[in-house]
Design a protein that fits this description.
The chain has a single domain, classed as 3-Layer(aba) Sandwich (Rossmann fold), CATH 3.40.50. It has a 7-stranded parallel sheet with strand order 3-2-1-4-5-6-11, with helices on both faces. A two-stranded parallel sheet has the order 7-10. A two-stranded parallel ribbon has the order 8-13. The protein is built from 11 helices and 13 strands. It has 306 residues and is of the alpha/beta class. Bound molecules: nicotinamide-adenine-dinucleotide (NAD).
Length: 306
């Protein structure tokens, strides 16, 4: 079986490619990445062919996709603040890029396309937990581009009989997630500040909640999805239904490190949702054997990696 991972030099992608290592039946892995936010460092110990190029380039897609059984499409400009700064770039990479990937999958008769959407599509809809059939009310250009990703997947499944599996990821964290830039996610920012002895910067009051998901659990679900060729036209939340405030995250990190941490507050960020918690009934129905790491275990692994 040949697998293509777009965005495989990124955080989730490189963890996924590592998770495929040694899995019986996986003969070849191809990574297609333009290294815009991913890094060669992430590729170092991966047993995969690396194609350096953009998903917006059909020739690159043709090179990578021929004879692929599955494509895991993770490549994107992956952040709300980045999309506020440059909405068109976000749209090109995430919405147009997905369309290009689906077109190439159709050309090459790829058996299955797994796509990365995001909990951000729920946006302003206040209902908790987030069930996949809630009305999406995206709050940022990023969230709109992820909704477009799902919508194109649904259209390609219905019009061209392409097997798809759009996952909505919720605040994925773990080893390999970069910290040292303005758009870093909350867990690596906190861990890196704590290890450097700097105060942790909380956006807003810290009572906003997230369903933090360990990257190893995300990778394990995707590997299972590829091996069993699972598909679903409807998006599937990939998270475990926990609801942790940013303040509690600080407390968990204090417990892991065995010391108190200083925090400073700044105003809430535009485009951010207030609360997030997945309903994972659909995930458990499709992946009955799914297991999870606790937040504590995930933080310990992240601290050990940093
Ligand atoms: P990441 O930035 O580490 O990975 C994205 C990868 O895509 C990078 O390696 C980047 O170089 C590559 N890329 C970007 N534009 C490209 C293009 N035009 N052509 C080829 N490669 C390109 O981010 P991540 O956290 O690993 O996110 C992976 C996917 O999961 C993204 O689609 C993101 O939107 C989605 N997602 C992530 C989270 C999370 O919490 N990390 C939550 C929801 C959704």
């Amino acid at each position: 079986m040949k697998i293509v991972v777009t965005g495989g030099a990124g955080f989730i992608g490189s963890n996924l490619v590592r998770a495929f290592r040694g899995v019986p039946g996986i003969d070849e892995i191809v990574i297609l990445d333009d290294l815009s936010t991913g890094s060669e460092e992430n590729l170092r110990d991966l047993d995969a062919r690396f194609v350096h190029g953009s998903i917006l380039d059909p020739a690159m897609l043709d090179d990578a996709f021929s004879d692929a059984a599955s494509v895991v499409h993770l490549a994107a400009v992956p952040s709300v603040p980045r999309s506020l700064r440059d909405p068109l770039r976000s749209h090109h990479a995430n919405a147009t890029g997905t369309l290009m990937v689906l077109e190439a999958a159709r050309r090459h008769r790829v058996g299955q396309v797994i796509l990365a959407s995001s909990s951000s599509v729920y946006g302003r809809n206040p209902t908790l937990p987030k069930r996949e059939d809630l009305r999406p009310v995206p709050l940022s250009p990023y969230a709109v581009s992820k909704l477009a990703t799902e919508a194109y997947a649904i259209a390609y499944a219905s019009c061209f009989d392409l097997a798809v599996l759009p996952f909505r990821f919720f605040n994925v964290f773990g080893p390999g997630q970069s910290a040292g830039h303005a758009y870093a996610a909350v867990v690596p920012s906190f861990v890196s500040a704590a290890l450097d002895g700097r105060p942790l910067t909380i956006d807003g009051d810290g009572e906003q909640t997230r369903d933090f998901t360990f990257v190893g659990d995300v990778a394990a679900v995707i590997v299972d999805a590829v091996l069993r060729q699972v598909s679903s036209v409807d998006p599937v939340n990939l998270a475990f239904g926990s609801r942790t405030s940013v303040r509690r995250l600080v407390g968990e990190l204090e417990d892991v490190l065995g010391r108190r941490l200083d925090v400073v507050h700044r105003p809430p960020r535009a485009g951010d949702v207030r609360d997030s918690q997945a309903d994972n009934g659909a995930l458990r129905a499709l992946f009955p054997g799914v297991t999870r790491h606790t937040l504590r275990q995930g933080l310990e692994a992240t601290v050990a990696w940093m």
